[in-house]
Structure formats: C-alpha cells, structure tokens
Amino acid sequence: MKRKTSIGNLVIHLFLLVGVIVVAFPFIWMIVSSVKSLPDFYRFSFWPEKVNLSAYKYVFQETDYLRWYLNSIIVGAVVTISCLIFNSLVGYTLAKHKFPGAKMIFILILSTLMIPTEMLVIPWYLLGVKVNLIDTYLGIMFPGLIEAFGIFLMRQYMLSIPDDLLEAARIDGMSEFRIWWRIAIPQVKPALSALGIVTFLGNWNAYLWPVIAVTTDQMRTLPVGISLYATGDSGGIQWNTIMAMSTLAVIPMIIVFLIFQRKIVEGITLTGMKG
C-alpha cells in the first residue's frame, strides 16, 4: 500500500511539475525576450547572445509609459474602492432587509451578467459623449464602479451574518449605516479581500472599454498603450519593447496575487457555501 501511495504521489507531482512549466514558460520567455535587441529577438533562440536593456531605456525615455502606469493605478484603485463600498452596501441590503421586490431586484441584477460587454460599449459610449466623459478618468471608470458579480458575492456572504447580532445592534440604537460599517463589514473581510483583488486585477488588464473611451495619448492605460506597439501604430512592431512593457506591467499583479492568494481562494470558495 505504501509503495502504491508513493507511486501515486510521484505521478501527481510529475503532472503538477508539467503544469507549472507550461504556465511559467510564457512569463519566463517574456522576461528573457525583454532583454534582447530586436535583431536578437528574430533569431528565435531562447537565450539572448548578450543582455540588452535598450528596450527598457526606450520605454522610460521615449514613451509615456510612466503616465500610463499611473493612469492604470488610479483607475484600478478608485474602481476597487467604489466596488467594495457600493457592492457591500447593496449586498447587505438585499441579504438583511426584507422588502417587496427584493428577490426580483436581485434576479434582475444577476441577469445583467448574461449580457456580453461588447453589447454594452455602444450605450456606454453614447452616454459618455452626451455627458462629456470621453477621455476622462471618470469616463474610463464609470462602467465598473458597481457591478453585478460583486453584489452577488457580497450578498451571499452577508447571509451568513446572524440576524440576532444585527437586531441587538438595532436595539442598542445603532443606525443601519453604522451596523453595516461596524458589524457587517468586519464579518465579511475574506469576501471583501477576494472582491478587491479580482476587481483590481480585472481593471488593470481592461482593454476593450478604455481603448474606446480614450482619445489622447496622456489618458491611455497600460493595455491600451502597449497595444500601440503590438499593432505597429508606433512605426513597426517592436517585440522587445512589447516584452519589456509587459514585464513591467505584470509586476503589480504578481505581487498582489502572491500576497493575497489565500484570500482569493478563501473568499470565492466560502462564498459558494453561503446562503
């Protein structure tokens, strides 16, 4: 039995090792390619003949990359904070307040998840043009300031909070806002962590709406700015520059995931067991 168990563990670890290699190889290749010269890149060899940092120098000296980086941070941070506040408020209301039409409202909110983003960009754009939001931070952010998935996530988790705890707070004279802030929010920290991480990473990588809502180079986010070099709009496809930009862009995502990976798994896993 011990021998069979050892063989089974060996097979499992081999599969896991293969999976790690398959997943990690594109990132390693991207980093290695970012320190190649453009002629060296086209040799189709994995390792560069000589480490060349010209792509990084070009990124920082000849492009608005730092401004794009700042734009992505601003958009990601503001949208994440907004989602944490408003999604938790709506989730708390739908989970802990009984009023006519509550279930219907929740169903209508969930139904919006079935609408593809491609079908929404036209009304978003028309609204943005009408109220002068195109090429502004608010214009980039407003579609994601509150979202259906976040409301669903928070409602499911809020259902686990004991009603007796909330009733005791009401008897003590606490307002509903203070109950939400002082009692409900501390009880759902794993869900808030998961929602915040998923929301930030989603907005950090967002491309479709920002590329439509942005018209000037100064307002571009990272995915939109990098796409200029991927399409040749900057004067030819500069693959080593694209790899350098992508390497720098992926750093915040790796850091966030490494620090909060347990919160992501815990929040999403436990949410499926609530309610």
Please describe what this structure looks like.
The structure is a single chain. This protein is mainly α and about 280 residues long. The chain has a single domain, classed as MetI-like fold (Orthogonal Bundle), CATH 1.10.3720.10. The protein has helices spanning about 1-35, 40, 55-60, 65-95, 100-110, 115-130, 135-140, 150-160, 165-170, 175-185, 190-205, 210-215, 220-230, 240-270. Residues about 270-275 have low confidence and may be disordered. It contains 14 helices and no strands. The protein starts with a helix and ends with a helix. Helices cover about 75% and strands about 0% of the residues. α1 crosses α14 and α9 runs antiparallel to α10.
Describe this protein with a few key phrases.
275 residues; mainly alpha; disordered C terminus; 74% helix; MetI-like fold; 0% strand; 14 helices; globular
Summarize the structure.
This protein has 275 residues and is mainly α. The chain has helices at residues 2-33, 38-41, 54-62, 65-96, 102-111, 117-130, 137-141, 148-158, 163-171, 176-187, 189-204, 208-213, 222-231, 239-271. The chain has a single domain (57-271), classed as MetI-like fold.
Layout of strands and helices, then pairs:
Layout: H1 2-33, H2 38-41, H3 54-62, H4 65-96, H5 102-111, H6 117-130, H7 137-141, H8 148-158, H9 163-171, H10 176-187, H11 189-204, H12 208-213, H13 222-231, H14 239-271
Helix pairs in contact: 1-14, 3-14, 4-8, 4-11, 9-10, 11-14, 13-14
